[in-house]
Amino acid sequence: MILPIVAYGDPVLRKKAVDIESNYTNLKILIADMQETMHAASGVGLAAPQIGKSIRLFVIDATPFGEDKEDDTISKKEREFLKKFNRVFINAQIEEEQGTEWKFNEGCLSIPKIREDVLRKPTIKITYLDENFEEHTEEFSGIAARIIQHEYDHIDGKLFTDRISPLRRRLLQGKLTNISKGKVDVDYKMKFPLR
User: Fold this and answer.
1) Three-class SS of residue 54?
2) What is the DSSP letter of 110?
3) In what order do the strands lie in the sheet with 86-98?
4) Can you say how many angstroms the Cα of residue 97 is from the centroid of all Cα atoms in its chain?
């Protein structure tokens, strides 16, 4: 089932999400609904707070990056990895971030029509549970690491706009206010806090 995506301004996007147990009610259905919602909105990641649930869960499907042969910033090896990068992250904890920060243009389904360059470290080590509650500790780099960091921010109550300069944020304030009021054209279901 396609769920409405919570828009900028909703308090749930600012809460630090809580861990869940394997007996969380209808977890498999929730994961399937989140994946369907993400795909319907042409996203590559979706965190539970974006559908109004303050729990430490996010889904990622980076296959569009793997299929984009025109983007020459992605190596062939990375593209091959991204083609298959489709994961569920439960109760994730980033253990470390390494390397020199690099800039990449990010967007967010909760903040439609706004994209900004965001600096993030290129390599991360993360411990998480998959949809079967099996634990993994893995290292990711490049686009995969960036998508994880973006979604991880959501479960910590942060947005990509928190990572841009205060001046840029002030310049965007009118657009952000309009989004919270529903004054934005989107082709997917959204829930606006100030409507």
Assistant:
1) coil
2) T
3) 45-47, 57-61, 86-98, 123-129, 135-141
4) 17
Known catalytic membership, residue 151: yes
Burial annotation 157-187 (CB, 10 A radius, 16+ → b, else e):
bbbbbebbeeeeeeebeeebeebbeeebeee
Is-contact 122 91, C-beta < 8 A? Answer: no
75 band by pLDDT with thresholds 50, 70 and 90: confident
Residues 6+ away with beta carbon under 8 Å from 11: 193
Average pLDDT of the residues of the chain: 95
Per-residue tokens: 186? 């989107």
Question: Is 0.85 surpassed by the pTM of this model?
Answer: yes
What is the token pair recorded at 23? 């007996």
Residue owning tokens 């959501």: 154
| CA pair distance 9, 180, nearest whole angstrom | 5
**Which residue type is seen at 14?**
R
Which run of H or E residues covers position 7? none
Q: What is the pLDDT of residue 76?
A: 86
Annotated active-site residue in 78, 106, 116, 151: 151
- Measured CA to CA, the distance from residue 144 to residue 174 in angstroms comes to 31
